[in-house]
Each structure stands twice: as structure tokens, then as C-alpha cells.
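Listing S7. Sequence submitted for prediction.
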Amino acid sequence: MNRYLSHKLLLSNPVYGNISKDIGIGAIKSIDKGDACQTFWIRMENHWGTHVDCPAHFFLDGKNVCDYDCDFWFFKNPQVIKIIAKPGQIITIEHIKDRIDIDTDIILFVSGWENFRGQNIYSLNNPGLHPDIALWLRQSYPSVRAVGIDWISISAFQQKEIGRLAHKAFLNPYSEGHPVLLIEDMKLSGDISYLEGLFVSPILIDKIDSAPCTVVGIFKDYQ
């Protein structure tokens, strides 16, 4: 059984800080205007909706979304970790210590913040991750290649400086271990405890640092 773990893009899409959130869509060809087919143009930022942050987001010579092989985006050992996250709270190592399996290749933090999606609090007072988590994962859990969250960004909007440091700590191509990519604004509601794999499919556009992505969860048949 498969299921989408990414949100569909809406014309008015929640974004970090509620800045320039309207997606532009326009018709180039339209059947109801006499054209033979439908064709549209789309305008949006590459960090809107469910998206993946790659090292090039903060490092000029870091890998961008097109630099990864197809196999990289298939995760066979996902782990779901439920956490309680208050508005503006910074999640630390203490919140997740001793809860991660050594063979995990992607961690999905489920906080319930998805319930606020579309409200101001989702974009303006979201929780965040502490930079120390990144180095701890890179040193102690080398199998982890990505982290996914069900809120807008690992950077708490009310504590943006800590958020920038966290992004750099996860994505730094020169730090110990390897960069851990970030999948933000995921759709993780419902029971995902039977998740046994997932595939991340970013939009492959040359030269951009990161990209919106579709995430498909693969669940055990007996769910």
C-alpha cells in the first residue's frame, strides 16, 4: 500500500513567515477558448510546499538537487518519532535521545503541527530543531541521510538565527560525517507506524539549490 506523504500545492500556500505565498498559475492554451489542449505556466519559489533542502541552500559549492543519484532518494529504513512541540520551541537532543535506531536512513518527526497548516501560527510561530541535533546524528547515526518534519521549517520563525545555524549544521558538506538533507512541510497525519519505505521525488531543475518534491510512503500490506 502506498500513500502520499507530501502536500499538494495550493494557489495560496502556507510558507515560512507568510511572505509572498501566492503561487502564480496562468493559462497559455485553453480548450474553452478554442485551443486544442490545455497548457499552463507556473510561478513559485523552490522552498514552497513539501520540499527538500540540499547543501547548496546554504553552501555555494554544496550539492544541489540534481547532484544526487536516483537511488539516493529511496529510503528503506524510515523511522517515525513522535514529539510534542510547543509554539516556537526548539527541539533538542534530550527530546529524542535513545530513540533512534542505528540503521535508520531517514527520520520523520511527527508533532501534530500539520493540524495548524493554513493558520498564521503554522508559518509564524513554528517549532524548530537545535543545531546540536545535526552534529549528533552525523557522528552517531551515519546511516541517516535525511530528516523530515510535519511543520513549515526546521528554523523556528521566532528564533531565526538558531534556525540558520541548524540548517548549516545539517547541510554543511565539510562537517564530520555527511550532510543530512531536510524535507520540510510534510504530510504525516494519520497512522504511519506501518511505514516500511519511502521515495522522495524532487523536481529536477538544473542550477537551483533545492526543490519541491513528491514523497510516496510505502506501507506494509497488513496495515
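Caption to Listing S7: primary sequence and predicted C-alpha cells for the chain studied. The chain has one domain: 2-6+46-219. The chain has four helices and 13 strands.
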